[in-house]
Amino acid sequence: MNAARILVVEDEVNVGRTLTERLSGEGYTVVWARDAAEAIAQDGQAAFDLALLDVGLPDRPGFEVAQAIRGRHPRTAIVFLTAYGAPEERIRGLELGAEDYVVKPFHFKELLLRLQNALRRVTLLASGEAAFEKPLQVGRARVDLKRMEVTVEGLSAPLTHKECAVLTLLLEKRGAVLTRDEILDRAWAQNEFPTPRTVDNFILRLRKLIEPEPGEARVIRSVRGVGYQLDTEAVKDA
């Protein structure tokens, strides 16, 4: 049985009921909310491991629900459901720290794999959280892994679970050279079919946040043909 708690936020009765029944059948503890107000109320009672949010809710956009949940429980993984696959919607969801974006109609087995991958990262982060309970200064950014956010020049931005997993591994192994395969093994599930280029893209995103000089990789250094190395001198107590 799966111990994870999932909040399903879906106003379409047939979809909500089906998701609740099928996820419960997989062993998850599922709470179904039919609108934004109910979802926020349920989240206020206890934290969920994952929230599966419909973007088009009748009372408030799913994005606003995601902001409320992440503000209260940063460790809750967010996966959006939408009837549209517009790029601007996907970008906004990722900016809010969403783990994934699933377009309706979807195959349940594919959705289940995506949820399992998101939950796997929650478990990985929880296991390494104790080592970095206090914020750190990494390059130009104040990194708070416990709250899953970075602050640069007074402006805070959320980190996704994948970004936190990659950054946590770099911090744990600071000074050592990490291969792309090592990073893939830590932050991605086998059934996600990532490539070494996937790691490069995430490193690029992290560099934009933490490198003091744009375009210069001094904090996260590239080791040609091997992987990446976090400069020990660039990490200090915040």
Question: Your description of this structure?
Answer:
It is a single chain. With 238 residues, the chain is α/β, with parallel strands linked by helices. The protein has 2 domains: 5-128, Response regulator (Rossmann fold, 3-Layer(aba) Sandwich), CATH 3.40.50; 133-237, Orthogonal Bundle (Arc Repressor Mutant, subunit A), CATH 1.10.10. Helices cover 42% and strands 23% of the residues. The protein contains 8 helices and 13 strands. The chain has helices at 13-25, 36-45, 62-72, 87-95, 108-128, 161-172, 180-187, 196-210; strands spanning 5-9, 29-33, 50-54, 77-82, 100-103, 136-138, 141-144, 149-152, 155-158, 177-179, 220-223, 227-230, 235-237. The chain has a 5-stranded parallel β-sheet, with helices on both faces. The protein has a 5-stranded antiparallel β-sheet with strand order 9-8-7-6-13, with no helix packed on it. A 3-stranded antiparallel β-sheet has the order 10-12-11. A hairpin with a 2-residue loop joins strand 8 (149-152) and strand 9. Helix 5 packs parallel to helix 6 (161-172). It starts with a strand and ends with a strand. The model has no long low-confidence stretch (mean pLDDT 87).
Give structural attributes:
alpha/beta, Arc Repressor Mutant, subunit A, 42% helix, Rossmann fold, 5-stranded antiparallel sheet, 238 residues, 5-stranded parallel sheet, 8 helices
